[in-house]
Task: inverse folding
């Protein structure tokens, strides 16, 4: 059974860097995109970006200048860094998986979510 | 960016009602669309993929239809556990985008 378990700092000050990690259990990296998605309190879902097993990334242009997604294949973990955070980055952050090479290519497995609050 | 316009943003319905939610894409996305259900404090759960294929384990009262720019999620007979927020997702082009959500509430 594939599971994603995520963790990271939940309270940041403005201008700091958000850092989250997602561990993959029961699956290899190959054949999938490993993704970060966020949801501000009471609002909808926003795709942040993704990485494949070879380290190739795709980012949302709205966040691209501040986002880095990386992977650690030895630990089957992938990570999100978002620099220069502001209150607008306050959200629940989810990691998720989707198929890369075949249908269906929407998100099938999600992490439990991590609430990140940016406040001075 | 492909805009996904979801309607209505909220609705009130009774147990047993038929409910229909619509997503319109700003450009054609073939059938590259999924539907998700989200309950408070939980991650979204996929109900439908490829616009009309039911995810394994999801009750058959859920169905999806559409292709191109207009898509529909239908719940044929609303059950108490179906009160939640529903989102569509397009994965035809980058950036991937979600609809704004439809909150289904108890009437």
Result:
């Amino acid at each position: 059974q594939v599971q994603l378990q995520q963790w990271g700092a939940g309270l940041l000050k403005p201008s700091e860097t958000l850092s989250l990690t997602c561990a993959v259990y029961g699956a290899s990296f190959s054949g999938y995109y490993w993704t970060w998605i966020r949801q501000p309190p009471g609002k909808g879902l926003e795709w942040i970006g993704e990485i494949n097993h070879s380290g190739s990334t795709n980012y949302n242009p709205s966040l691209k200048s501040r986002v880095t997604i990386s992977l650690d294949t030895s630990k089957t973990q992938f990570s999100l860094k978002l620099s220069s955070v502001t209150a607008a980055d306050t959200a629940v952050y989810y990691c998720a998986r989707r198929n890369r090479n075949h249908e269906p290519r929407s998100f099938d497995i999600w992490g439990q979510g991590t609430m990140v609050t940016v406040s001075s | 960016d492909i805009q996904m316009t979801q309607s209505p943003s909220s609705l009130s319905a009774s147990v047993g009602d038929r409910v229909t939610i619509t997503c319109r894409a700003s450009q054609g996305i073939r059938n590259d669309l999924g539907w998700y259900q989200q309950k408070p404090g939980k991650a979204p759960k996929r109900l439908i993929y490829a616009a009309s294929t039911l995810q394994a384990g999801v009750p058959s009262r859920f169905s999806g239809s559409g292709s191109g720019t207009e898509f529909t999620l239908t719940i044929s007979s609303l059950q108490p556990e179906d009160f939640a927020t529903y989102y569509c997702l397009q994965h035809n082009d980058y950036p991937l985008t979600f609809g704004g959500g439809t909150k289904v509430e108890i009437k």
Notes: DSSP finds no helices and eleven strands in chain A.
